[in-house]
Specification:
- The structure is a single chain.
- By secondary structure, the protein is of the alpha/beta class.
- It is built from ten helices and eight strands.
- Strands 1-2-3-4-5-6 form a six-stranded parallel beta sheet, covered by helices on one side. It has a two-stranded parallel ribbon with strand order 7-8.
- The mean pLDDT is about 95.
- It binds ligand YH5.
Length: about 270
């Protein structure tokens, strides 16, 4: 899954037409590099990020979805949003997957919107909201609590009419987790796979990679400097059961996965 950020801070320029145009080019480049899903998001959910008004989020993502369709992108699109109005507009523009970092808890109308549209759904675990989640993340047993939290959200989604076979689960790396929590989850992915749903892992370029990838006390800066560490985590996650990897660097990740597969069994990932 290739990440397509359509937030103003992800482009230095800002003009709407140029932003949409650059985003469309980037989506095609990721598809050509081997992405099986393009994840389009217009709301930054980084730690400390402020909520984006619904109309603004729609104004960011819909022109991009519309242009992707007009230019004939064939890989499925997921919409990364917590808001049902954004999701509905995205489904109408052809998005086939809902990626909700709140696991349908932020907007009470979201579950029904997804059920009615018949889309696949990614339910991600988070402790707290993006604004406050990194202030003091705390768990007794992080792996058990994330597993049970995901099981509960999966049951709620099924109760709302979402097809059980179309639900994927995600431990939410960095969403209300310390570095140690992130490592515990990544070391115990098989404990999360017992839920029977495909697992999604999104670790690409996140803070813990910067913290661990540089010398002690000198974290790597945000951005492409974190690509090599992100590849290491992607290979680990794939080897331990992740079915979908949400990444910035699609070509590099696909290449690394191909080598891992060849070394393992001569197959292709
Ligand atoms: C995810 O894990 N993450 S948005 C901070 C960074 C770098 C990247 C400090 N949406 C996930 O990508 N959806 C996001 O550097 C997601 N799983 C799913 N399913 C945060 C993000 C990021 C944050």
């Amino acid at each position: 899954m290739g990440i397509l950020n359509v937030t103003p801070d992800s482009f230095s320029d800002g003009g709407l037409y140029r932003t949409a145009d650059a985003a469309v080019d980037h989506a095609f480049a990721m598809a050509a590099a081997g992405a099986d899903i393009i994840d389009v998001g217009g709301e930054s959910t980084r730690p400390g990020a402020r909520p984006v008004p619904t109309a603004e989020e729609i104004g960011r993502v819909i022109p991009v979805l519309s242009a992707l369709r007009a230019r004939g992108l064939t890989v499925p699109i997921s919409i990364d949003t917590r808001k049902s109005a954004v999701a509905r507009a995205a489904f109408a523009e052809g998005a086939a997957i809902l990626n909700d970092v709140s696991a349908l808890t932020y907007d009470p109308a979201m579950a029904e919107a997804a059920a009615r549209a018949g889309v696949a759904v990614i339910l991600m675990h988070a402790q707290g909201t993006p604004e406050t989640m990194q202030l003091a993340p705390a768990y007794g047993d992080v792996v058990a609590e994330v597993r049970d939290g995901l099981a509960a959200r999966r049951a709620a989604a099924i109760a709302a009419g979402i097809d059980a076979a179309r639900i994927a689960l995600d431990p939410g790396i960095g969403f209300g987790k310390t570095l140690e929590h992130n490592l515990a989850l990544l070391r115990n992915l098989p404990a999360l796979a017992v839920l029977g749903a495909p697992l999604v892992v999104g670790a690409s370029r996140k803070r813990f990679i910067g913290a661990l990838g540089g010398p002690p006390g000198a974290p790597l800066p945000d951005g492409p400097a974190r690509m090599p560490g992100s590849l290491a985590v992607a290979l680990h996650a794939a080897r331990h059961g992740a079915r979908i990897l949400r990444v910035h660097d699609v070509a590099e990740t696909v290449q690394a996965l191909r080598l891992q597969a060849a070394l393992d069994d001569g197959g292709t990932p």
